[in-house]
Amino acid sequence: MLPKSKSNKSAGFTSRLAKQSLTQSGFTLIELLIVVAIIAILISLGAASYTTAQRKGRDTQRITDLKVIQAELAKYYADGNQYPANDPADTTGGTRFNCVSGNVTWSNSTQVNAFSCTPISGGTSKTYLSDMPKDPLARNSWPTYCYKSASANQTFTLYARLEIAPASGDVHYQDPSVTICGTTGYNYKVDPTN
To answer: Given a cut of 90, is residue 63 above it in pLDDT?
Structure first.
């Protein structure tokens, strides 16, 4: 018997390699399903994180808006030793307040007029805010901010509805089941002391 030549051996090896690579190249169906499942899980985690980040961002904007209004109300108080009164013509309650020279209003539909008032002590009209802030989700179904004065205009409370409500023990917590400014759902409040 003649020994096999090297070329026959290498030819056999090459053909086995070709068969092996043809049968084992690519992924199995199970491997593809696992990869697709992992990608789906990562997408759902990313979407949930993105949604939470958006809610936190809008809530931060609401809190900042109330702090800005609070600071300007403090300036108004410093000019006249009282806060603006609730507007008696405001049928919804809390979306307007009285100044000596007129009303300040904010609504769901538009960025509204300035907080410009003649101080209680008299003098000329002063602009405290050039644009009253509006809730980032202000729509017909989402309440705008609300203002209520009390104790002969010596204090006030500003209300907002946060998407991520504060804990019930928080100093800013407001029971959302209580009707305020003609609606329920307000869960955050700010007054002159906080």
So the answer is: yes
Note the maximum CA span of the chain.
Answer: 124
3-state secondary structure at position 56: helix
Rounded Cα distance, 192 and 86, in Å:
16
Q: Rounded to two decimals, what is the model's pTM?
A: 0.70
Distance CA 194, CA 185 (A): 21
Q: Which residues of 146-179 are buried (b: 16+ CB within 10 A; e: fewer)?
A: bbbbeeebeebbbbbbbbebbeeeeebebeeeee
Task: Give the C-alpha separation, 3 to 115, whole Å.
Answer: 104
Distance set, CA 172 to CA 59, 60, 106, 154 (Å): 13, 14, 22, 19
Collect all residues with Cβ–Cβ distance below 8 Å to 119 and sequence separation of at least 6.
76, 79, 80, 100, 126
Segment 101-110, tens digit of pLDDT: 444 544 444 4
CA 83-113-84 angle, to 5 degrees, is 10
Among 88, 100, 73, 75, smallest CA distance to 155 is for 73
H, E, C per residue of 133-149: CCCCCCECCECCCEEEE
**Nearest Cα to Cα of residue 97 among 2, 184, 181:** 181
Nearest-5° angle of CA 22, CA 26, CA 29?
120
C-alpha 51: how far from its chain's center? 10
Beta-strand runs (E) in 16-101: 85-86, 96-99
